[in-house]
């Protein structure tokens, strides 16, 4: 089922799970959701210190487990592509630990999208294991958390290598 605007606004869980509409485009909804997450991160960054981001991430992840379970059930697909709250929370986590600046954020965006699309092990296993029943929302949220972890590891290596190159 392709969600409609009516579906989007029919329940608060749908609005959140579909990234306030950012997951509605017919192609690349995960990329649009990640872009929305990036934009909201930039808008909220001046107002949130690390403690605020920690709370936002924990609440966002927990809320995401519920809204994605509810919305997936209502759509009839546990992890419908239009559900992008998982990308939003994951990119917030990645950007929180990314060096300041547009170039670094762009690299982080690209690295995260790569891991989210390719889904290297154990992401696919996690996705299959938890994307049904009562655990569906946890599976939806969790696989993007693993992609965020891979992204953070990759960014740490890239920052270190670039730093060494710049020092010489």
Summary?
The protein has 168 residues and is mainly alpha-helical. Helices cover 72% and strands 0% of the residues.
Could you describe the 3D structure shown?
The protein is mostly helical and about 170 residues long. It has one domain. About 70% of the residues lie in helices and about 0% in strands. The protein has helices at about 5-10, 10-15, 30-45, 50-75, 85-95, 100-120, 125-130, 135-165. α5 packs parallel to α8 (about 135-165). The model has no long low-confidence stretch (mean pLDDT about 95).
What is this structure's SSE topology?
Elements: H1 5-8, H2 12-17, H3 29-44, H4 50-75, H5 85-96, H6 102-118, H7 123-130, H8 136-167
Helix pairs in contact: 3-5, 4-5, 4-8, 5-6, 5-8, 6-8, 7-8
Content-based structural category: mainly alpha
Please tell me how large the radius of gyration is.
16 Å
Helical fraction equals: over 70%
Mean pLDDT metric: 94
Give the overall form. globular
- Major beta-sheet overview: none
Total helical segments: 8
Q: Strand percentage, roughly?
A: under 5%
Give the distance, in angstroms, between the N- and C-terminal Cα atoms. Answer: 55 Å
Q: What is the H/E order?
A: HHHHHHHH
Tell how many strands the DSSP assignment holds: 0
Low-confidence stretches: none
How many distinct domains?
Answer: 1
Attribute tags:
single chain, 168 residues, mainly alpha, 72% helix, globular
